[in-house]
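Quarterly update from the structural biology core.
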Amino acid sequence: MTPTQLDAAVDPADLTAALLDAEAQRAAAPAAPEVVLLPDDLLPGVGGEPLSLRETVAVGGAGLLAVLSVLNLLDYAGSAALSVLGPDVQRSLGLSDTGLGVVASLAALTFVVGAVPLGVLGDRVSRTRLTAVCATVAAVATLLTGAVQAVWQLAAARLVTGAGQASILPVNSSLLADAYPVRGRARVFSVHNLMPSLGYVVGPLLAGLVARVAGGWRAAYVVLGALSLVAGLAALR
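Predicted structure, tokenized:
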């Protein structure tokens, strides 16, 4: 078809009508919502008098911060206990230094991998119940660590322990953020985030003391698991 024939095939009236219809549809379409940018001094939590830790806790309740902080401490204490109990575990199960290192890292693996799915699940179910369930799972796995008789059982226990502890960052942190006001939230998180460091100190001390008094590394994990189980059940309230 030549350009002349093509021009003849296109009716100018039809083209004009199509353009008018398209313009009418564009004009009738809902306008895009206007984006409103607030100045910094109007953002939530900016300005105003900061709240003390006591005032902040009074708003959200002391129980939530206490339970989540104790869970955080005991989770890291159980992981750190292996640094003291490791030689006894090696002798009992015939583990090499490399094998012990691999087993010790399994909880960290599931701790990291499990954080994303638990974070997604926390948006769909009750986060308080999810926290309690995860804490209970980790506590039971810690208890069972004291009863293992083979390396694969120890590896399985560590994997489950890490999976239960994976709720700390995505679920427990969001609970704290929702419960306490912005102007004092940093103080709440400073208490909660202090617990891992404290756990790395308390865990080896408590594990070593229990192992010495009770006569073995298994008793230490039973005690740590029992304490974690009590805290996990308290999370239900």
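The longest helix spans residues 182-214.
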